[in-house]
Each structure stands twice: as C-alpha cells, then as structure tokens.
Amino acid sequence: MIEGIMMQNGENYAVAVRKPDGEIEVKKDTYRSVTKKYPFLGIPFIRGVFKFADSMIVGMRALTWSCSFFEDDEDAKESRFEQWLDKVFGEKLEGILMTVVMIFSFIMAIGIFMLLPMFISNICKKVIPSHTVMAILEGFIRIAIFVIYIKMVSRMEDIKRTFMYHGSEHKCINCIEQGMDLTVENVRKSSRQHKRCGTSFLFFVMIVSIIFCFFITAQSQIARVLIRLALLPVIAGVSYEIIKLAGNSENPFVNLLSRPGMWVQNMTTKEPDDDMIEVGIRAVEAVFDWKNWQKENL
C-alpha cells in the first residue's frame, strides 16, 4: 500500500493508511473468493491459481484506495485523454483501469522472470549442448534476475517505505503468534520474517518453475514458450500448496525448504518505525480478534 498496510482474515480485509495529516484512516471491506462460490475450484493444486487471482484483486483494490489520499490537488487539471476516459466509462473507469494494470503487470512478470531467462540461456546453447546443464543455467539466471530486480527497486525511496510497512505487517503477525500483546513495544521486538509471506511464495514459484523446466525437451523455441505458458497454472498451484504447508508446519525439512524464501524477505522487508507499527496494529485489529485467537490457540 501507499503509506499503509492491508490485513485479510477470511472474507474480511482492512486497509489502514497514514494520511498526509498524520491521522490513520481504516477501511474494512469483504471479498468473497471464487473458490467459495464454486467449491470445486478449491481442490488442492487447483485452488492456488484462484487464490493468486484473489490476492491480486484485493491488493489492487486496497492500493487504489490508499492512493486516493495522495493524489494531486483537486485544482490540477485533467488531461483531455483523462476527461475522455471519464466521459466514456464513467464509474466503471476505476475497475477497468485496475484490470488493465493487473493484466499488464502479469504479462511483464511472465516476460521478465520466465521468458527472458530462457532467451538469455539460449545464447549459450551452442557451447552447452546438455539439456540438463541448460536447464540449471536457466534456473540460475531466473533467480539472479529476481534478486537483482528486488535489489534495484528497493533503492527507490517509495519502495523503501513500502518494504518498511511490509516489515511492520510481519512483525504484527509474529507478535500475536508468539503470544504477546499487540503493542508497539512488543511488535518492535518481533521478527520481520514470516513463512506465509508472498515473497516466499514468489521464490517457491521460481524453484518449482525450474524443476518443471527440466522436463521441457521441445527443440522449437515457440513450443518451449507455449509449454511454459501452459504450465503457469500448474506451477502456481504447486507453489501455493508448498507455501500453505510451510506456513502450518514446524517440520525440520519443511523449515529447511522455507529458508531461501525467508532469506529473500531480508530484502523485501525493512525495520519499520513506530508510526508504521501503529498502522499495522490498526489494520490487524480491524479484522482479527487476536486476544480470542491467543486464548484458543496458545
């Protein structure tokens, strides 16, 4: 979010934003997943695709709302193109723009993190005839691009603050799960790493995609691209089941699998200040009775 945090509990989610005047604004809303409407879509290894879509939709809704507090002054004139869009689409404009942004982001992610590594590794194909070595090389390139991308965006001032809020989100949840009262002092002492983080999910997507690429033996470049695209739902489904297992298990082997993703979180989370922690606490308390949860589970 822009200067804020979103917390979700079942169908309820809340967005807390620190407004320019210093006050915290909280919005609570509901979102019913397509897997609830159509239970057969909630089958393991299928549900992951739709859960990912749900998170994108809710995330964009929350992001759009948080941005509304930081728009330019009302006196700023709209361009002719913006006026035309508003005239043609009216109240539907926001939803349409959100859909366009989601589709564009998805296409860019596929291009950068899936297709680009394949094309880069193909440069070495004449020198490295082994399919296994090529698959490993492509995997290393994919992970390198992912890490470099995060490193680059983390240098942006706005992203630095976003990562600090991300750290506040994790620290709030860890504070509750450790049985401590949800206070600024206790949250500050908690870890900013969490096994159910979306960063870990993305890292698992990288690893699972590398494994699946070992079995793509097509020689045609077009066929290899099409097979990779066709495997995306499968990769997302498998990755979701892994992150779900990792988040609910303390098995030593599962914890070992989670370590790389937790390491990457060192880049996508930063230590928040107390103001950010306060925002995180407000978002949690809007949708989650943490005291009752602690009584029942701890």
Give a description of the structure.
With 298 residues, the chain is mainly α. 66% of the residues lie in helices and 7% in strands. It is built from 12 helices and 3 strands. Strands 1-2-3 form a 3-stranded antiparallel β-sheet. A hairpin with a 5-residue loop joins strand 2 (12-18) and strand 3 (24-30). Helix 2 crosses helix 9 (221-247), helix 8 crosses helix 9 and helix 8 packs across helix 10. The chain starts with a strand and ends with a helix.
Q: What is the radius of gyration computed over CA atoms, rounded to a whole number of angstroms?
A: 21 Å
- Give the helix proportion (percent range): 55-70%
Distance linking N and C termini? 31 Å
Instruction: Indicate the structural class.
Output: mainly alpha
Outline the low-pLDDT stretches.
Answer: none
Q: Largest beta sheet: what is the strand line-up?
A: 1-2-3
Counting DSSP E segments of at least 2 residues, the number of strands comes to 3
- Beta-strand percent range: 5-15%
Summarize the helix and strand pattern as letters: EEEHHHHHHHHHHHH
| Shape descriptor | globular
Count of helical stretches: 12
Largest sheet composition: 3 strands, antiparallel
**Mean pLDDT over the full residue set:** 87
